[in-house]
Amino acid sequence: MIQAAQAAGAGLQAHFARLSELGVRAKSGPADLVSIADEEAERTTRAILAQARPDYGFLGEEGGTFGGGDTRHLWIVDPLDGTTNFLFGNPLWGVNVALARDGQVIAGVTWLPMINELYVAEQGKGCWLNGQRIHVSGRGTLIESVLACGIPFAGKPDHPVFAREMALLSANVAGIRRTGACAVDMAWVAAGRWDAYWERALNAWDMAPGVILVQEAGGVATAVDGSPLDLHGQNVCVSNGAVHGVLIDALNQARDGHA
């Protein structure tokens, strides 16, 4: 998984150095972009993973799902998380590679090439950043916490809900941030840089590695309403655990129209 993520990252870095030459097109809408770089990175990742475990299924953002003889195991890959950052010359982007068994993530790799951060986690074996064990933060109240979130862009749902979330939370926390890449935000919760992160409109490949990173770093991952996480439920909330309940309460209030 590390080899696949780093090989894809090397190709992406080469494209990042010559962005003006990239072919770019819109996917689902004018603000949802994809490039040749994304597609090449996914092919690279898939080829390396298939060589290691040819029977495993594969789910990628650009190419969709490919079945394998082993129906229990599924590679989940976002070859370039933070595509808009990438295309605008922002270095906060990365490669996500996860392995799910029976629908539960059991291993994950997030590689952030431009800032040289490799996050690795395996079920029961902890979370590691560049070979050093990491843990979620120990902050226990919202007022001392820095949160990260996803902000819906053009073509995404839940803009009114997001506005209510900000109204409820911004006056009661130390700060709210958005890097523009789910891979970065979830990894930084695992590293204790953020105390929590949530997003309401995303996909399995966006969140899968981050789930195991946070869990193995001592944190918690659920749906945004506090229910058990569904990788295909299109939303996630991860935290250090200590602030999880009060954050979920606020998110549920925002969803229900209270601000």
Q: How is this structure best described in words?
A:
This protein is of the alpha+beta class and about 260 residues long. It has two domains: about 1-135, Fructose-1,6-Bisphosphatase, subunit A, domain 1 (Fructose-1,6-Bisphosphatase, Chain A, domain 1, 2-Layer Sandwich), CATH 3.30.540.10; about 140-255, D-Maltodextrin-Binding Protein, domain 2 (3-Layer(aba) Sandwich), CATH 3.40.190. Helices cover about 30% and strands about 30% of the residues. It has seven helices and 15 strands. The chain has an eight-stranded mixed beta sheet with strand order 4-3-5-6-7-8-9-10, sandwiched between helices. It has a five-stranded mixed beta sheet with strand order 12-11-13-15-14, with helices on both faces. A two-stranded antiparallel sheet has the order 1-2. Strand 9 (about 125-130) and strand 10 (about 130-135) form a beta hairpin. Mean pLDDT is about 95; it is low at about 30-35.
What characteristics describe this protein?
single chain; 259 residues; alpha+beta; Fructose-1,6-Bisphosphatase, Chain A, domain 1; D-Maltodextrin-Binding Protein, domain 2; 2 domains; 5-stranded mixed β-sheet; 7 helices; 29% strand; globular; Inositol_monophosphatase-like; magnesium; EC 3.1.3.25
Nutshell version of this structure?
This protein is an alpha+beta fold.
Instruction: Identify the strand order in the major beta sheet.
Output: 4-3-5-6-7-8-9-10
Using DSSP, what is the number of strands? Answer: 15
The CATH architecture term of the largest domain is 2-Layer Sandwich
Helix content: 25-40%
Oligomer: single chain
Order of H and E elements: HEEHEEEHEEEEEEHEHEHEEH
| Shape assignment | globular
Task: Give the CATH superfamily of the largest domain.
Answer: Fructose-1,6-Bisphosphatase, subunit A, domain 1
End-to-end C-alpha gap:
43 Å
| Main β-sheet description | 8 strands, mixed
The CATH class of the largest domain is identified as Alpha Beta
Portion in strands: 25-35%
Radius of gyration, whole Å: 17 Å
Summed up, the helix count is 7
Contiguous uncertain segments of 5+ residues: 29-33
- Class from secondary-structure proportions: alpha+beta
Mean pLDDT: 93
Number of domains: 2
The name of the CATH topology of the largest domain is Fructose-1,6-Bisphosphatase, Chain A, domain 1
